[in-house]
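*** Query protein ***
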Amino acid sequence: MEHLDSGILILDFGSQTTLLIARRIRELGVYTEVWSCFDPRAQEALPPCRGIILSGGPASVGAAEAPTLARGVLEHGAPVLGICYGMQLLVEAFGGRLVQGEVREYGRTPVTCTAAAEGDPLLGGMGSGFVAWMSHGDGAKEAPPGFVATAMSAGGALAAVREASGRPVFGVQFHPEVSHTERGEALLRAFALEVCGAPATWRMESLADELVAGIQAEVGGEGRVICGLSGGVDSTVAAALISRALGERLVCILVDTGLMRAGEVEQVRGLFEASFEAELRVVDASARFLGELAGVVDPEAKRKIIGRLFIEVFEAEAKQLEGVTHLAQGTLYPDVIESTSFRGPSSVIKSHHNVGGLPERLPFKLLEPLRSLFKDEVRALGRALGIPESLVGRHPFPGPGLAIRVLGAVTPEAVAVLREADRIYIEALRELGRYDEIWQAFAVLLPVWTVGVMGDARTYEQVIALRAVTSQDGMTADRSLLPVEELAQIADRITNQVRGVNRVVYDLTSKPPATIEWE
């Protein structure tokens, strides 16, 4: 494989954050490839590379059909780092003791370094301890013969081990690739650059050119593309790339689903006309979407209905155009990994309308140039393409729109209440100077009615939940601890200005265990 002899090979055992490991390594300038643990190549003699990383995964080591460690990993000779499930595979392979279901640790977890961590290539600079991001139920209780424990978790499990003989084999139970692990980047840097000696020579400056070339090869010289444009960062950057690749062979379609944010259609139209040369068509399908969602409560059903309707609208528009061969979407890696079992045995978290929510029959080929990128990478790419900061810096907005933020049945009245509450919330965050320091903020309308009092009269109205999280990539997220005084101001504005709401609550849950969106 080109470059792999000077890079890092990652074997994916199904973790939701496998590509995030690759992304962290390539940020160091080191070439990286991700192979599924089920890839036939991984079961044979592995190719020359500077190091091997074993990802996490949802299985229990030793369980029926659980992924196993290929013999070639330990025979290879390159340094090995096992992360979470990857560490457990190493512990089992070398004769250590694992326990199943006894050590459940999720989210931020204190980790204490042992005496053996002093001088350790990975943990030597961590001091007496640090906070790591855990996501496991099984754990290792005893290090294998010839290994030493370099860190212990708060739950009494081994948090890090290394082979004491000096052979570069390491395991960490936590996730250093996740931004919430303190000095996780330093740990991966030490492994890739110092332990493995991989050269930091790979650059991403040519990413846009590579993506444009890939689009041209995929579509060919005659194909035509329609692109679903939502006004969000992802679809806009995708449209900009395709426009650069195909010029007038791109037609963008903005579907007004009736589930968009306040003023969304007008804002998208204005930004598009100012920044693009491709054609934009706006289709008002709000009555159709709201009609088919009537009475639907299940989140997956909502997503699948919306995905189907999008395709039907695009198909109808495409019939008015000649030579349409592809449907383009701004699908990102977090969308893909949560919706499908991707690059290995990963668990399906939920379908996204533009991934798992699409119908099986598609009249077009899918074109998803961003599907291996993370949100902040897409933002950086957008800036390089000259997209205005006012759009590049917007918070993520789900493709199904407000339908998955109205919990329970979707009605025009419920959407209107939520849209106004969300507008007030976002407007207040901008006024307070908080918007740009938050990854994503939004309001949710709960299917809960509570008693209140307004103007000395009893009310029985609904509850709005406010959500704000910090993140770098959407794969994990922490709650944003906004000042209580500011939250109180926002709550007062919502209850005073939005008819039908008499109570506001704030969501303090991280991802994991929750997802960012409520549905």
